[in-house]
Amino acid sequence: MAILNEIPTIDISPWMSSNASQEAMDEVVKQVHAACTTYGFFNLVGHGVPVEAREKVWEALKLFFALPLEEKMKVSVDKSMGKAFRGYEPSLIQTHQEGLLPDTKECFITGLEVPAEDPDAGNFSTGPNLWPESLPKEEFQTPVMEYRTIMIKLVETLVKILGRGLPREWGCSPYVFDKLTARPSTPMRLLHYGPQTEIDPRQFGVGDHTDFGCVSVLLQEKGTKGLEVWYPPTETWIPVPVLEDAYVINIGNTMDKWTAGHYRSARHRVVNYTGQERNSIAFFLNGNLKLNIKPLDGSSDEEISISENIRSQLAHTMGKNGTFLR
């Protein structure tokens, strides 16, 4: 296998079409499998996400981060119900590794809308969203939730592709991952990175880390840069430039554990030393939080709880700022 210095780009349009050939769909499965076992990352095109939906959610993001800090703090994550973890996460409260300084990013987090009276509300990543009262619903809440709906449809397709790419000798159903998308935890982060005016090698927009869930879907803003992926064969950081009409897809720790490392959760970081602002929108498929999983290759009978696995990792990176998650 040739060693490349960029992650692959994969066109999944055959999976978005009702009349694609089986051969074309199988080729997509082959390419996704190769990317997820080699890099844990790939660029995705042919996804069918309307341009208008992306433009509207970008506008919503910019409206929120233009608010004064005191307005954003009215919906801070510590005000969410129980361990729901919704709302505004300010800069400098999450640290991914010992020895690093806290991330400079700030973000606004939404999830599946679960009413406060629901029996599960207040459990990890489950509950009502928080919305800033100073922004009109039709300009912020509506486009954000409409975009979330489109992302859920996209990850439903992605897990079908991933399921069909598993080794045949494992004897898994091709629908093995479909259960992830039943009432799933799907946190979405509107992310803003201010220019880092003081460069410190210990501090990043987001420090070196792996994602906690199953599959992540990232929309990067045109004209920006900063995302880098660690590639072990060359022991180098590979830049992930913004491609026209593309998403960045990566595997998270939970999927890595479920597939016994077959689909690889890759280290990545955001370096924002350009002197410019950077925005992005990250959608995370954690999955059905009531699922317990064990390695699909049969290497272990030890089960882990998706909910507890992700909650404990998140709480660790939040340190004393995440006491409400414990």
What does the overall shape look like?
A: globular
Main β-sheet description: 8 strands, mixed
Helix content: 25-40%
**Quaternary assembly:** single chain
Structural class: alpha+beta
- The main sheet orders its strands as 1-2-10-7-12-5-4-3
Strand content: 15-25%
Distance between termini? Answer: 44 Å
Mean pLDDT: 95
Q: Which parts are unreliable, with pLDDT below 50 for 5 consecutive residues or more?
A: none
Q: What is the string of SSEs from the N terminus onward?
A: EHHEHHEEHEEEEEEHEEEEH
Q: How many H/I helical runs?
A: 7
* Cα Rg: 19 Å
Number of strands: 14
Short descriptors:
4-stranded antiparallel beta sheet, alpha+beta, 326 residues, 19% strand, single chain, 8-stranded mixed beta sheet, 14 strands
How would you sum up this structure, described in words?
The protein has 326 residues and is an alpha+beta fold. It is built from 7 helices and 14 strands. It has helices at residues 13-16, 22-38, 51-65, 69-73, 141-164, 253-258, 306-318, and strands at residues 9-11, 41-45, 87-89, 106-110, 188-193, 206-209, 215-220, 227-231, 236-239, 247-251, 268-270, 278-285, 292-293, 304-305. The strands form 3 sheets. Strands 1-2-10-7-12-5-4-3 form an 8-stranded mixed sheet. Strand 8 and strand 9 form a beta hairpin. Helix 3 crosses helix 5. The protein is globular, with a radius of gyration of 19 Å. The chain starts with 8 loop residues before the first strand and ends in an 8-residue tail after the last helix. The model has no long low-confidence stretch (mean pLDDT 95).
